[in-house]
Amino acid sequence: MIPARITVATLGAHDMPAMRGFYRGLGWREKDGSSDGFASFLLEGAILALFPFEHLAADGHVEAPARTTGFRGTTLAINVESREEVDAVIAELRALGARITKEPEDAVWGGRSSYFSDPEGNLWEVVWAPHTSFDEHGRFVW
Amino acid sequence: MIPARITVATLGAHDMPAMRGFYRGLGWREKDGSSDGFASFLLEGAILALFPFEHLAADGHVEAPARTTGFRGTTLAINVESREEVDAVIAELRALGARITKEPEDAVWGGRSSYFSDPEGNLWEVVWAPHTSFDEHGRFVW
Predict the structure, then answer these.
(1) From start to end of A88-136, where are the E strands?
(2) Cα dihedral B98, A49, B70, A62 sign
(3) How does pLDDT run across B51-74, given as a tens digit for each residue?
(4) Which CATH class is domain A70-142?
(5) pTM for the whole thing?
(6) CATH label, A1-63, candidates 3.40.47.10, 3.10.180.10, 3.30.200.20, 3.90.870.10
(7) How many inter-chain contacts (A to B, CB under 8 Å) are there?
(8) Which of A59, B34, B109, B110 could be B30's S-S partner, Cβ–Cβ 3.0 to 4.6 Å?
(9) Which residues between 75 and 94 in chain A have a beta carbon less than 8 angstroms from any beta carbon of chain B?
(10) What proportion of chain B, given as a percentage, has pLDDT over 90?
């Protein structure tokens, strides 16, 4: 059986100090022992890790392309617990200097969605979806 | 406060039927209502979602590059509970036709690591790390 779980999402970083600074600036707790060589943040759901871009490709035994900019094809999401919280979180992100690529807007499927980008173009959705609930750790309950 | 959580990892897919088929083939449970327009899998930790590549970029209000191949700069991980389980899971993935980019090997940091790729080059690490423990849902305990 292939364990049905995501434990870590790792972003290949071109500028580790800048990327660490950005995520620390969100108030997220970095794990002890994090460095500019490898950093991880203790999020609920899955760990967020940062690892130099070329090293991450090498770790997976694949070729690293030339430096990427813009959309990478993968997004991460932060579900929040109310429609209003989407707007509040985006306002806070803006105040922290994050680039908001999509202002909060109601979605055709009934929720509310917005996106921000980290300094290297990794996209995060801040989203509220109706009929979802969370446990005490902020994780989905099926 | 920016909620410190990852609820969903979404992969932009060029061929939705092929990508859905691959992840269903792992034995992962697709959420009711999934389609070739949007599919999600109920993993522990975070949901895995599949959404057409150009639609995902458009949803985030960013430009979609030309079709990407190879390393995208983001990886996801499946932590398992023993050194031996890394090898067992990789053997099962190989039997299912997944491309193994890195055979299991002991890592300098004391764990055991391997990688496989989905049909569009998204990399997953199957990894065991010493001194980590999980709750009954297969999620990290800090």
Answers:
(1) 99-106, 112-117, 123-128
(2) negative
(3) 999 999 999 999 988 776 778 899
(4) alpha beta
(5) 0.94
(6) 3.10.180.10
(7) 221
(8) B34
(9) 75-80, 89, 92-93
(10) 80
